[in-house]
Every structure is written in C-alpha cells, then in structure tokens.
Amino acid sequence: MSHKKFSVINTPVHNIDGIAKVTGRATYTFDVKLPGMLYGKILRSPHPHAKIINIDTTRAMELPGVHAVVTGKDTLGIKQGIWRRYEELCDEQILPLEKVRYIGEPVAAVAAVTEEIAEAALDLIDVEYEVLPAVYEPLEAIKKDAPTIHEGVERNINVTRHIEWGDVDEGFEQADYIREDWFKCSGQHHMCMETRAAVSNFTPEGKLTVWTSTQSAYYHQALLAGVFGLREGDVRILAPYVGGGFGGKFEIDSAQFCSGILSMKLHKPVKIVLTREEDFIASKRRTPMFYYVRTGMKKDGTFVARESRMFSNGGAYTGMGATALYLSGFFHSFPYKWQSYRYDGYRVYTNTMPSTSMRGFGAPQAMFCSEQQIDWMCADLGLDPFEVRRKNGHTEGYEVPGQAFIASCGLEQCINEIEKWVKSKGKLPANRGIGISSCGFMSGGIFNWFDSPYSFSSAVITINVDGTVELHVGCQDIGQGSNTTMAIIAAETLGVKVEDIRVHSGDTAHCPADLGAWGSRQTLMAGNAVKMACEDAKKQLLEFAYAEMGINIVYDLDIKDRWVHIVARPERGMKYEDLVKKALRAKDGQRIMGRGYYTPHRKGMISPAYSYMMQAVDAEIDPETGKIKIHEVMTAHDCGQPINPLGLIGQLEGAASMALGYAYLEDMPFEDGKMMNPNLVDYKVIRAPEMPKTDIIEIDTYEPEGPYGAKEAGEGLTNPTAAALGNAVFNALGIQMKELPITPERVRKALAEKKEAQK
Amino acid sequence: MKKQVLTFRVNGDEYEILIHPKTLLADAIREHVGLTGTKRGCDTVSCGACTVMVNGMSVKSCSVLAIQCEGMDITTVEGLEENGKLSPIQRAFLDNGSYQCGFCTPGMLMSSTAFLNEMGDKKPSEEEIRESIEGNICRCTGYNSIVRAIDAVAQGKYKEE
C-alpha cells in the first residue's frame, strides 16, 4: 500500500493543454496550412482482390491545377510493416505494384492546387484490373482451395501463436465438468474524431518534415525514412494536437505515405486528410476473432484446464495484428490461475481491410468468450460466480507460468466491492439483469519487434535560471493526458509545481526516442524515465545546495513545494528559485540537465505490471424487440497509485463508452469485401442520451515497478464490458450470446432458439 | 457558378469574403476567415464537431451554405472568451475534465452554450442536458464529464456576482 504523502500526485489538476483545447487554440494536423501547400487525394481500389495490369495517368495529368500523379512505380516498392525485425511480417506496399488485396487499398495519388481539383483528377486515372477470386472470412480462407492472397503463404495463415503451460490433457482428465463453445467477436473501428491526416514538406536540402496525427512520432520517423530511403535524422515528425488514436495511429497510413511521395516528387508541401468514409474503409480496425474455448472445472469451481483455438480475420496485411494475436491469447487466461492452459492463435489473411490493435489489444474479444463461459459453467454447476472468480483469481506474488510475474494485484478487493454493489441492488424487475466480468491488463509491452528487442522510453529535462523546467519526452499525448501525467511526475520528483513544467513532445527533432502511446505503456515506462531524469537534475541541484547552505552531508536534503530543506528540519532551507539561480550562475553558463530512461529487462514476457478490475453492467432487455437499455455500469479498479484523479475518471468513463459501443452498437458488416456502413449515420457509436452512469471505486495498491506505484489505467477497462453485458443478458433472459455486437436481432434470435429448445 | 461576396459577422467582427456559392459555412469559417477552432469530423452532418452559433442558435456549419448566412451573426469557439477571460462553460469544462483529445470540444462547447443560453435561469434535467448534445459525438470522454460541466453551469456554479 502506498499511504505516502504526495505534494502533487493524486491531486486533481486541469490538463496542461486544457485552455488550448477549450478555446480553439489547439491546432491539429487537420488545421495545418503551409505557404504554397498543395492538396492530395487518393484513388482506391474498387475490387477486393485484383491484379493491376496498367495505370494510365495521362488524362489526370492534363487537368489544369494538377501537379503530380503517383502510382506504385513512383515508390521504392518496399514492403513495410511495423514489426520490421521480422521480414515476413513486412508485407504491405502502400501503393502496391502488382495487386490490390482489399476494397479501398490505395492505387494512385494526386496533388493539385485545391482538394476539388485533386478529387476531379481521380476520375481521370485509368486503371486496368484483372479481377481475382476473393475470400473474406478466416475460416474460409484457411481452406485448401481458397484463393492465395500473398504468394507463398500457405492457407493464407499469416502468423501463428502458441502459449502453453501445465499438462492440459491431464488437466481435462481431472475435470469434473468440461464445456466447449464457439464465439464470434466482431471488429470495431477506432473512429477517431480526427481522421488520419498528414502534411508532408520535402525541401531541396533533402529533408522531409511531416505533420501528422500519430500515437508515436518515433515510429513514424523510422518507418517513413525506411520506405522513402531517407536517413531517420532527415525525417522530422511533428505531432501537433492529435484528435484521438485508440490504437489506430502508429502504423504508416495512406495519408502519410502518399503525401510524402507527392511532396518528394514536387518539393512542395502536400496535405492529405482522409474523408470519414476513407478512414472507415481503408485504415485499420479491431481484429475480428473466432474463438473455440474448452474449459475444465472441478465441482468446487477450481479451474483445472483450458484449451482455446482462435482464428482472427487479419485482413489484407499484418500491421500490428500479430501482437493482437499474442495478447489475446495471453489475456484469455486472465486474471486466473489456470493449472494448465493452451492457446493456439491463427491470424488469417482475407480480402478485407487489415485489422490491427485497438484499445484493449485483443483482450475485449478474449474476455467476451472467457468471462461468459465461466458464468455459464457456474450456472450449470450451481456455483457462485463471485466465489469462483475469487477462488481462481490472481494474487500478489503469483507467476503466470513462464509468462509474467504479478507484483501488485487488487483483484480480490475489486471482486468484493462489486459483489457488495450487486447485492445492494436486491431483486431486479423482469427482463433486467446485472452481469459481471473481471480482467486485467498490461502496463506497456516488454516485447518490441520494431528495432530493438526491448521497448524503451526516455526523457530529458533542463532547468531554466528562474526554476522553470523544460521537460522533453518522446511519449505522445493523444488526448489521454500523458503530457499532464508527465508534468505531475516531474513536479513531484523535483519538488516544484505543475505550472513550472513545460512539456515538449511530438517532435522528433527535439524529443528523445520513445515508442510512444500503445499498450498502456506511457504512465509506467515514460513515467519512470521522467522520474529518473528529474532525480538526475535534482541530485545536481542538491549537491550545490550542500555547499551553498554549508551543511554536513550526513543530513538529507530534499525539495518540496519549491522549498529546499533539511529533511529532519524542514524549516531550515532556502527557496528553490534562489538555489537554481545561484547554481546556474556558478556553473559558468552550463545548464542543469537530467536524463532518464526506462527499459523493462527481465520482467517476464509480456509486461512489467498489470492492472486489475471488475465491472458490473446493469441492463434491461425488451424481449419483444430485443432492444437493450443500459441502466448503469459499475467498476472496481486497481491501477496502483492514481497520478491525476481527474484524468483517471475521464479515461475510465471513456473506456466504458467505447466498450459499450463494442458490446451492443458498433458493427462493421461486409458484403463481398465491401464495408456496408462507412459513415456516422449507419455506424452507431454511443451518444450522450444512451451513456449510463459509470461510477468507479479505486482500490488502493502500490506497484513497485511503476513510478510512485502507478500502473495501467484507461485501456484495460475496454476489456470487461462486452462480457459483462453478455452476462447481464444471460441473467435477465437465460440466453447465451456468442456473437458480438449484441444487437436486437441477435437477442431475438437467441430467444426464439431458447423457445424452440423448450418445446 | 460565379463567386459571390458574402458579408457576415464572425465573433463580432465584420467580414467580407469572396466565395463560391456552394461553399459550406464550416469551410468559409476555416478557410476564408481563418478560424480553425471549428472542426469537421464527417461528411454526413452526424458528428457535430463543426457546430457554431448562427444568430444565437446552434447550427452544424457543414449543413448550411455560407451564402445563406448573409448579414448574420456567427459565433465560433474563438468567440466564447473575452479578452482572455473564459466563459462559464469553458471553465466548467476545465474543472470537470470534459475534454480529452479536444477535437470535438469546440462543437460540444457551442451546443452547450446555445442550450444554456436558451435555458436562461431554468434548471434543465439531466435528460435535457444529454439531449442538448445528442448531435455531438465525443469518442474520448463518454460524455458524463460534459454533462456534469453543463449541469454545473446550469446550477449557477459559475455565475459571477
């Protein structure tokens, strides 16, 4: 437990970018306008699978106002992917040379003086295709006679993952009850309010500057340098304010790539902003997954064995999908101590838009299957679902065999709190049910398949003569408030106030390298780097303070609230700003700088720390229409030491809204490879009137690996909701929902099947 | 079609701009007047990121032609503050953490402002508050912090003596 007195941490503060955002001063890539800037548009494939025979750009080039038209032939033809340590995972040419593999794949791009002219020019590009047979579903695509999507890839199996511990066969022998189910989990679109956008500016010095909406400036610097044949140092990425990410903005997108190619050809700035429709059909999405789950339990509820097979719809390319395959299988075991566990994941290419990471990173799908099946087994055996979860749940000091070490864990307290809350609700009216789901999540991935085997974060601080601080970080604020989190950690460590810290991020020319915002890595990893950088600078200041104050070094000195003092006699000290001024003057103009980094060596296979939570969803279902009304969502949550309580609540409420969307509203139906609802009229996200009350109980734990005890918050809470809603529907109507989202049609179908079975 | 002259007021200042008659109000504000606080998030009048006030009424500025606003008063997010002093709803958004990525925030603030103006001294119900921002999508916050902010202003918490 923490119980530590903090000066800054755990006090609600306004986000440091709040005033910019509520006054319209915050500028996004969408708002960037450079002198002489041209506008780009992208021609996209109407076919799910076709050979490109010929592209004739003559007529488009003749249109007045058009400056350039590019196709695959204007590129280096490099097959790229985000996991570039593995050549076989680099399979995507943006502007392909030979064939297209999904509807919406870019085939050509135009730069013109206005967006309208660029758009008109697209109609004048003549593309000759040879249409090929296509396949859209993973269970079809793995068949022997299915069309080949990538040459040499047998049965279209892109990546496989195997996770195993214990003796699974022996485990099933010991089981008193075994149950198996198939589940189908849908995709989901990130639907960032700011669509993918980039302004590329290549100048005759041979240097490229790209303003873009990104979750990782460093990834984009390295990836774009790679595909354009430039040195990384000659590519500068500027991420102004970013209008949302949610896992969808750290691979190269067509706006970045096409604007870059056009700008390099023309030596002029080129801006491309995807339309909402393009963003829907031709970016990426949450990975749709088919899960087969077989679970063995003792009569008393002890989990003895689980064996799962998962087939994911990978779409046309790998991207970040390989990681979702791995993490889904790992979190499918969470948060329980399985005596034996086996997972086999198959990521299958199909002729649909690629799938990738999205908030929760494969875990929401895994939990939907796991947490519902557990409740059904409890019902079959007459066991209490809270008791069974408590009995098998992770505890402090547990080791997931060969995978992970659990240092802090508030799961049991989460279960107790939610049990109390559910019981306080008493008997519910007809057609109404409360469902529960527990889960956990990572605080950043240990693995890194980009350039180095380990992931890393870094930070640099400089103290100005007046005591204000320049904090340079490579982590990326995409709205989740990481810049504010870093400012709080810096202020706490240095002993100053949040307003003393100016955070510099999102600029590869001035900020240190860092993998950026994904997998909930920043609070723990970048937070530790910031803490170390500030400790480094503080040490230099305090060394000077000993001399200046004439104190024997047996006394500890510290700084708190801008007061440098002897720890044992806090009244004896001097003002922080006076100390800084004297220290800087004494150093012949040298600045006081601190450097910090973090890399998780020897911390298991997955993550250095895990958050835990349990959620309950109170829902009412109309049995006639199948329509669901969510009354309330209640969460008990262990994220270690909260850093900014105001930001934390925002992240958790936001996770609930996105996860509820996944549970019962958001769907991406395809017909013959074509997404049927690529607009915000037909793609239903949750809106204010549907959003229920979402209270949160924070469980007090302390994570030894995290900065000041902090760990993941905000992504993990996307995981339990679909399962909890499924369990609410089960408790209300006795039907088992095996497909997402839980739409009125699916509820009605399940009710009809139940009626049929009772006959 | 020939370009036409449009005269209108934006945040109290009069502008005379030459525009194509098909230009949307959102684009006139962003491209011609140069105020980029107003955003766009869709092409189907669905997301509300472009919401402004036209003669005091909240309007999705992608749903009207600029030329229809001849002689009218437009207020954008940039017009909410006065010499650096934030309006009550802006301050309430800060206190309640009612924004994250911030892209929907300008539109959300304009819908909220129009609603609060319309309410006057009347205290709206939570349901009414939620309906007032039904046309605005926020992908980050889950809306509840925005509802708390609007409610705080409606309850008079930000009233100046």
Strand order of the biggest β-sheet of chain A: 3-5-1-12-9-10-11
- Name the helicity range of chain B: 25-40%
CATH superfamily of the largest domain in chain B: Beta-grasp domain
Overall pLDDT metric of chain B:
97
SSE order of chain B, as H and E? EEHEEEHHHH
Question: Structural class of chain A, please?
Answer: alpha+beta
Tally of helical runs of chain B: 5
How many structural domains are formed by the residues of chain A? Answer: 3
How does this structure look, described?
The complex is a heterodimer of chains A (759) and B (161). Chain A is an alpha+beta fold and 759 residues long. Chain A has 3 domains: 32-132 and 195-244 and 249-282, Aldehyde oxidase/xanthine dehydrogenase, a/b hammerhead (Aldehyde Oxidoreductase, domain 3, Alpha-Beta Complex); 285-447 and 604-758, Aldehyde Oxidoreductase, domain 4, CATH 3.30.365; 456-598, Aldehyde Oxidoreductase, domain 4, CATH 3.30.365. In chain A, the strands form 9 sheets. In chain A, strands 3-5-1-12-9-10-11 form a 7-stranded mixed sheet, with helices on both faces. The N and C termini of chain A lie far apart (56 Å). With 161 residues, chain B is α+β, with helices and mostly antiparallel strands. Chain B folds into 2 domains: 4-79, Roll (Ubiquitin-like (UB roll)), CATH 3.10.20.30; 88-154, DNA polymerase, domain 1 (Orthogonal Bundle), CATH 1.10.150. In chain B, strands 2-1-5-3-4 form a 5-stranded mixed sheet, with helices on both faces. In chain B, helix 3 runs parallel beside helix 5 (144-154). The radius of gyration of chain B is 16 Å and the shape is globular. The chains are: A alpha+beta (759), B alpha+beta (161). The interface between A and B is large, with 57 and 53 residues.
